[in-house]
Protein 1
Amino acid sequence: MPTTSSLLIRRARVLLPDGEFLVGDVLICDRSIVRVAPEIAESADREIDAIGLTLLPGVIDPQVHFREPGLEHKEDLFTASCACAKGGVTSFLEMPNTRPLTTTQAALDDKLRRAAEKCLVNYGFFIGATAENLPDLLSANPTPGIKVFMGSMHGQLLVDTEEILEPIFAAGDRLIAVHAEDQARINQRRQEFAGISDVAIHSQIQDNQAALSATQLALKLSQKYQRRLHILHLSTGEEAEFLRQEKPSWVTAEVTPQHLLLNTSAYANIGSLAQMNPPLRSTRDNEILWQALLDGVIDFIATDHAPHTLAEKAQTYPNTPSGMPGVETSLPLMLTQAVEGRCTVPQVANWMSAAVAKAYNIPKKGQIAPGFDADLVLVDLDNYRPVLREEMLTKCGWSPFEGWNLTGWPVVTVVGGKVVFEKGKLDPNVRGEALTFDTDM
Ligand code: DOR
């Protein structure tokens, strides 16, 4: 006999789908939200008194690199999902640059099997495009979409010429998510700046123009075939202004907290920990990206969580790898911006959950309403705490935001109706589910 379990969150400040707040109770039965009301009389197996806390839909992080299989010295699906649970991230979409690459159904199935065994939160995996795997791209299932690295990648996953890109855009109709950097321009500039070991040169080698020209090419192909396109981690003011003029209804774009909140001045403070692709830009780019996000030109937020060990980061540029972790800090970073007046809490919840569920057609996620999945995060908007290296759960053990004093830290995270994180403690026995991607939504 299957047993049912119920959870009642009492006296929370609950964010409703219309963007209003209700101080009240949320009843969860098994995996689903069943009722949201000012006061629910009945009792449940488990009750949480959430007085003073704000209840938000769990974060759906639509771009992460969790390194399993093959690169588990940096991260694995267990450590990454622990970091997610602590950060209020209840679902993630993971990228194909693992070893082996996720370019076949067999590799996708292997990741799904591994995740079912060890992931504390919900999961989905992109299929990676190569010059040769069009049949796999058309049939892969379940997947949020096709990941195309137009630049910043080597080997099979680099799909950097119009000749190779065109058939991928022409065949099928599933979402294509692009890492838009122009590899030919990057190669040329790498030669021009060869011999410079100051990591700050990274932002000049992979410059704004490299990002803009790749975004323009992806958009041109998307327009030609009316193909659903998502532009990953937009980093430049130029791309944002271009999309403000040119973005068709079937195109979405995302930005990372680091491209909003960090810029090239970070190299002086944290050196290669600030190195990522696409690189950090200027304060002017920060400002234009913020405005584009507020205006809806940019649709949502992803972390691009891409951990590398401190030993790897301690090498000399250009041998230092690009990428930084993010799932533990993204929600408090953005909620701190909201508390400090740059945006609102409902906007943050939309950018980090509802808008992602909508863009990727993930059913029953992103809202606190009856019938929706009980993926939730209770946050404390009244207390500030610094980001501390020793508290990081990501295997890489560092954050580019160390020392930043943030509010909005998760107090309780619920995945599928189960409390997975509470007041600093994880329940390592909770398991997420494979996400589904509804084509008829
Ligand atoms: O900085 C980055 N690192 N950008 C990417 O697109 C890939 C990632 C990685 O996997 O390390």
Protein 2
Amino acid sequence: MQVDEEKLAAYFADEPADAPFSHLDRARLPKHVSIIMDGNGRWATARGLGRSEGHKAGIVALREIITASVRLGIDVLSAYAFSTENWNRPAHEVNVLMHLFAKTFIDELPLLRRENVRVVFLGDIEALPKKTREVFEYGLKETAGHTGMVLALAVNYGARAEITRACREIAAEAAAGRIDPVSVDDKLVASRLYTAGLPDPELVIRTSGELRLSNYLLWQVAYAEFYVTDTYWPDFDRWGYVKALLAFQGRDRRFGGLSKK
Ligand code: FPP
């Protein structure tokens, strides 16, 4: 933890803040970058530390990527922090994570204010422990008027649950006669998802080498580019981020059509 904090401080001290970004074509950045932050546990185990230390180090990495995204002018950064399946972890780890979420959120509010970041949550935060929920609700209110980057945190999120919830809502409105079933289209479905109003992710980054989506934004990533790195999340830094963005800029995005190159 201490080492990462120092590394982070060094980045800001020794270089112009946007030094690694000079390699990027600023005009062709994704509007929405989404991150599956994976490998905190393995990062900690590899160092003989408890898993909680991995999650703490993961927060340092998230802070760096938030700051980098703001500097780059990314419109939306989303991150998978806790899935509906993560409740199956040992109670101790779930408690540590819930406590960390609340503490981190309070600690990072000054950063979110300074950087004009608006926070939204993807997932059912009503079902979170009271303290965590209250801190999140406070953060939502406090940042609601911010006009800069949107930080979408997926907490107690599962894509199947999200799509099912949208279907249930639409079906209820159809049954009540407020929606004609024939008029149900992809725009209407998208408007009932947690991501309503946000652009779809154009780039999904997954750390720690796993090649799967893990029930994350299944609807929204239909045309996203994927980038997987073996780096564990706590070691993912702005240089790793630039590599992912460069890979994105090298992709030929056809959306089912033909190459324009
Ligand atoms: C995956 O690593 C990571 C998580 C389950 C939690 C990530 C959360 C943060 C970094 C903090 C987010 C902060 C806020 C305020 C929402 P893992 O435990 O699955 O690692 P492993 O696969 O190596 O076991």
